[in-house]
Amino acid sequence: MTRDFRILVVDDELAMRESLAGWLHKEGYAADCAAGGAEALELLGGRTYDLLLVDIKMPGMDGLELLRKMKETHPQTLVVIITAYGSIESAVQAMKQGAQDYLLKPFDPEELILLIAKLARQRELIRENQALKERLREQERTGWGDLVADSKAMRAVMRLVEEVAASDSPVLITGETGTGKEMVARALHAASQRAYGPFVPINCGGQNESLLESELFGHERGAFTGAVQARRGRLEMADGGTLFLDEVGEIPPKMQVDLLRVLEEKAFTRLGGSQTVHSDFRLVSATHRDLAALVRAGEVRQDFFYRINVIAVRLPPLRERDDDIGLLAQYFLLRYGRETGKTVEGLTPEALRILNAYAWPGNVRELKNVMERAVVIARQPLIGKNELTFLQPDQESGPELISLEEMERRHIQRVLEAEEGNITHAAQVLGIDRRTLTRKLRRQEAK
Ligand SMILES: Nc1ncnc2c1ncn2[C@@H]1O[C@H](COP(=O)(O)OP(=O)(O)OP(=O)(O)O)[C@@H](O)[C@H]1O
Ligand SMILES: [Mg+2]
User: What ligand is nearest to the CA atom of residue 173?
Assistant: First the structure.
């Protein structure tokens, strides 16, 4: 295995340098050697290292001085100090000056390799989170406002929306609940020539028929009991802009006939009125239902369906947008972090895995709520599986039957996590000595 993690070994003792570099090479790390501080600085000028392994006691420039100098020019490079038992204070001082960790001589190669594996994982994590942030920044430059999407499926949607924005043809947006239908409708409006006109949404579901009718068409004074004043309807308000008929499948068939006429003539009368009102709007509709099936069932008129479905935009469910889940999660995380003043930076790989494995019946809206909740309960900058416990795969199938070895593996991981990766503490909790734990971890890693 080759790893994308380059190490520089700095030690004045040739034998030590060579054996360290030898172990590292065997583990698949790229490692170079320097015989002292001056040579190390020279090498640092020429290439980037992820980690410096530095002996603290060296003639000339010692480890502490090297640490001080290189932290000025290479603050991102990690440093692990190697020190003899007698000079532990200087190791402590090195940690204060920005070293990540120290090793006491003599040490077990396994201990060194485990420490480096841990640092390499951390580094990879930071890189992954930075890459996500970078992708988000690029997103912000695309002019799609708050709409975050990078998956192939969503890119195709965005391309289609950009193509059809300029025309005045009716658009029907379909997709499961929470997939972003309204968001896309607004983006479509913003990308159209009507962007400076109004965007007028109306939810056609869950309203009684006469209320919906007067909401849409407006009414004259005295049109029905309670109509003490004349009122403009949504059709009128949308003049010069976009009318968004949300849950369009819920419109009763009789009103579909009336709407069809409005769409053809761009004119109508208010309820109880006789004067023709002209309104020039672009129609965008949305539904989470299968309209073709509703046509077959006789709930939606075929002519109405054809009229509103000139351009069809299908939003894929979130589970079909693997590339978007991490990106959206990061986006909501940073946003809620900002709003609540909490320092949140990203997700652990495990958290990402959980998010990717989940089915997301509530789609983006659900992910948004989950991240809000995670930020509220988070006690550290990285959101991990502890913040997502309520998302764990369903327990219906009962406890999993696993081998003793697997149980041991999971238990060790749990303890290690609780002890924040500290092997000595974890070994104490497990009641075994540090070397035994190191060996077990080593064996697990090899699998
Ligand atoms: N691509 C996206 N980027 C950022 N936020 C999104 C995205 N898609 C959806 N959201 C957010 O998710 C929530 C649900 O989106 P929206 O209301 O547009 O979905 P919908 O498909 O209209 O849902 P419903 O069918 O329940 O009406 C909103 O808060 C929206 O801001
Ligand atoms: Mg909606």
Answer: 1
Query: Is CATH 3.90.980.10 the classification given to domain 152-316?
Result: no
Say which CATH architecture domain 322-391 belongs to: Orthogonal Bundle (1.10)
Give yes or no for residue 186 CB within 6 A of ligand 1: no
Q: What is the pLDDT of residues 6-26, one digit of tens each?
A: 999 999 999 999 999 999 999
Prediction pTM value: 0.69
> If you take atom 15 of ligand 1, which residue's CA is the nearest one?
180
Distance CA 153, CA 164 (A): 17
| Gap between the Cα atoms of 334 and 328, Å rounded | 10
Three-state secondary structure call for residue 177: coil
Q: What is the pLDDT of residue 156?
A: 94
**For residue 245, with 0-12 CB atoms within 10 Å meaning exposed, 13-18 middle and 19 or more buried, which class applies?**
buried
Which residue among 173, 176, 364 is best mutated to probe the pocket of ligand 1, counting the most ligand atoms within 8 A of its Cβ? 364
For 196, phi and psi rounded to 5 degrees? -85, -5
User: Ligand 1 pocket test: which of 365, 366, 367, 369 has the largest number of ligand atoms within 8 Å of its C-beta?
Assistant: 365
Per-residue pLDDT tens over the stretch 62-91: 999 999 999 988 888 999 999 877 778 888
Which residue positions in the chain have pLDDT lower than 70?
1-3, 139-143, 392-401, 447
179 touches ligand 1 (CB under 6 Å): yes
| Residues 148, 324 contacting (CB under 8 angstroms) | yes
- Residue 307 is given by DSSP the state H
**What stretch of H or E contains 200?**
strand 199-203
Q: What is the CATH number of domain 6-131?
A: 3.40.50.2300
